[in-house]
Amino acid sequence: MITFVTSNRHKFEEVSAIFNDAGIELSWEQMKYEEIQADTTEEVSRNSCIKLIGQIHGDFFIEDTGLFIDSLKGFPGVYSSYVQKTIGNDGIIRLLKDRPDNAMFKTVLTAYINGTIKQFTGILEGSIASDERGEGGFGYDPVFIPSGYGKTLSEMDLTEKNRVSHRFRAVKGLVESLARNDH
Ligand code: IMP
């Protein structure tokens, strides 16, 4: 059994479906924790995990996700949460007017297992749509079109998003490691 610490119900639902398929028990600590700012998603994720050591019973993990837009030199990146709350999807679409729209999502999962820290990364390449589309998901999902797909993540159901997503790819690394018992 391992605990996923997140206040985000959407993240928990996506991750819990992956654990379910793998037959590994997952518990949810629905808690808001302090995100420690840094220059990279790897550091933010690691620092936030370290801050939680001693507060969570047993093995646990957190994850931090960012949207990186090529023509904005990786912005909003580690500021993705602030940018979503302030200018939102509409603001991102406006910023990208007349600029190339290539982007990626990156999830960095940091796990604390048997007293050891391990990180797992998942990337999803794609592009920013010219308008918001779809009802599902959360955050930037309505404006993110995965490469090779003609629709946004919001136009996919959870199962379909989980087949391609950055979060799925990071969690897959953890699930495989837990299954191998290699920590
Ligand atoms: P955080 O990982 O919760 O800090 O997420 C940073 C920002 O990216 C927040 O505004 C989230 O809503 C957004 N975000 C995180 N994961 C996803 C995702 O899978 N799809 C769309 N937006 C996301």
Task: Report what the structure shows.
By secondary structure, this protein is α/β, with parallel strands linked by helices. The protein has one domain (2-180): Alpha-Beta Complex (Maf protein). The chain has six helices and six strands. It has a six-stranded mixed beta sheet. It starts with a strand and ends with a helix. Residues 8, 64-65, 67, 80-81, 84, 137-141, 153, 167 line the site of inosinic acid.
Offer a concise description of the structure.
This protein has 183 residues and is an alpha/beta fold.
- Associated small molecules: inosinic acid
Could you name the ranges where pLDDT drops below 50 across 5 or more consecutive residues?
Answer: none
In percent, how helical is the residue content?
25-40%
Please describe the biggest sheet, giving its number of strands, its sense, and whether it closes into a barrel: 6 strands, mixed
Topology:
Layout (H helix, E strand, L loop, with lengths): L1 E4 L3 H14 L3 E4 L11 H12 L7 E10 L10 H7 L1 H8 L6 E12 L2 E13 L15 E3 L11 H7 L1 H15 L3
Parallel strand pairs: 1-2, 1-3
Antiparallel strand pairs: 3-4, 4-5, 5-6
The site of inosinic acid has 14 residues, from strand 3 and helix 3.
Output the keywords.
6 helices; Maf protein; binds inosinic acid; globular; 6-stranded mixed sheet; 6 strands; alpha/beta; 183 residues
